[in-house]
Amino acid sequence: MLIKMTTFTKIDDGSLPTIAVNSAARLSKINPNIYGGFTEHMGRCIYGGIYDPGNPLSDENGFRKDVLEALKELNIPVIRYPGGNFVATYHWLDGVGPKEKRPARPELAWLGTETNHFGTDEFLKWCEVLGTEPYICLNFGTAMAWVEYCNGTGNTYYANLRRKNGREEPYNVRYWALGNEVYGPWQVEQTTKEAYAHKAFQWAKALKLLDPNLILILCGESGTTSWDYYTLRECLKPTRAALSSNPTPLIDMHSIHMYTASKDHLQNATAPLAAERAIEIASSLIDLARIENGVSPDDPRPSICFDEWNVWDPLRAEGRFGAEETYTLSDALAVGVFLNVFIRKSRDLGMACIAQSVNVISPLMTSPTGITKQTTWWPLLLFSKYMRGWTISAHVSCGAYNGGTSPSWLRSVKETPWLDVSASLSDDGFVNVVTINVHEHKDFEAKVEGAKGPVNVFTVTGADVTVTNMKGKEEVGAKETTWDGQDHYVFPKHSLTLMRWKE
């Protein structure tokens, strides 16, 4: 069932825009896991990012305290690790035990050397300090032993190895991905959809037998491809993996990835709408696989795990050089549109992980002496703080951008309104509405139906779409004001506005 969370009517640019919010229409719960993060052994994400032993800003574990404090502001529920492409040739055993005995290895994903000073126990300890849940991405060669090490409770080899290394109780890691981007020619583990589906189904069965409580994530592509269709069809089928009399599917979530970027502001800001269509298509493919495979309607419907997303131009910020992007206000608005999409499609999303959490294409950058919050930090903070609870109905009437899009196929499948909107009702009874005016030069006066004063207003904008926060001063932040809810509201050009009022 395709549910429209925010509907849109195109009107001419000279007419008065309207945003009509219906707080009584609770459409679907927003899974907090859509505000997940991602840490990969890439560039300065781990070393010099979250882990910097010897730095006076680090704690006794070597964890950067300023980074922990900043990430706690985001209330991140889950963080993916250790990749990404890195995981293809990673052997987790290299990263456990006494650090002086851990081997340095050639790192083939990003062409560096991995010291293995930061590994499974350090990551899981860091998650506990941060107060977040871990999500581990596997390669198949070491999957069973890795799960046993993290979750084993019996008198078995790898559970005992964990105990020997200083951790008596199991970590109880729930989320495990069955590989990363193995469809891609950049991947050491590259394979065909047929070979991957065959192997993933076998490993999923074994992993569920080892630990029935695991939540397994299938490696999808963008949600719009034959890879997604084939792997879902072959893997989303009933089986008696847990020796149960009732066969059930092994797969709990389907992963998709998407990065967007353009030098043109309007193409850049509207590009994340491609993620909305991708989610819709992937959701339909999940339903199709369940129908074709005769899955019982009583079995839980798998959700989508959008576990890599962000604005990233790989030519502007090359992965082999650390992928350290300098983000603009235009990029911040694009991140806001991504997050609007996730709110609108909350029925289908079980998780989303911004790639990545520190330094590498990240809203948070470190130096030896402190941190910088990039332009993209501010939409992420406002959404994570306020856009929780229920997605509610909203209808937008406004003009639209009619030019070229990136990707080019977006123009043929989605409208691109000047005002991009999502709405939620939080558990404390506040209505929250995010409106992103993507127009570079024009303010829009609009009627906001349903608003009740006093309305708290947070605005993210700047002098122009090219400003950044990486030049020693904060050009983009979040300004808080109050509106009485009467008459019309003017949404500034190139801005993100979050309104909230008590229902």
From TrEMBL:
Any one Gene Ontology BP term? arabinan catabolic process
Q: Which GO terms describe its molecular function?
A: alpha-L-arabinofuranosidase activity
Keywords of the record: Carbohydrate metabolism, Glycosidase, Hydrolase
Question: Does the record bear Hydrolase in its keywords?
Answer: yes
Q: Which InterPro entries match?
A: Alpha-L-AF_C, ASD1_cat, GH, Glyco_hydro_b
Which EC numbers does the record give?
3.2.1.55
Provide an example Pfam family for this protein: ASD1_dom
Annotated Alpha-L-arabinofuranosidase C-terminal domain residues: 307-495
Q: Which reaction does it catalyse?
A: Hydrolysis of terminal non-reducing alpha-L-arabinofuranoside residues in alpha-L-arabinosides
Which pathway does the database say it acts in?
Glycan metabolism; L-arabinan degradation
Q: What does this protein do?
A: Alpha-L-arabinofuranosidase involved in the degradation of arabinoxylan, a major component of plant hemicellulose. Acts only on small linear 1,5-alpha-linked L-arabinofuranosyl oligosaccharides.
Q: Which family does it belong to?
A: Belongs to the glycosyl hydrolase 51 family.
- Its name, as the record gives it, is non-reducing end alpha-L-arabinofuranosidase
Organism whose genome encodes this protein? Talaromyces stipitatus (strain ATCC 10500 / CBS 375.48 / QM 6759 / NRRL 1006)
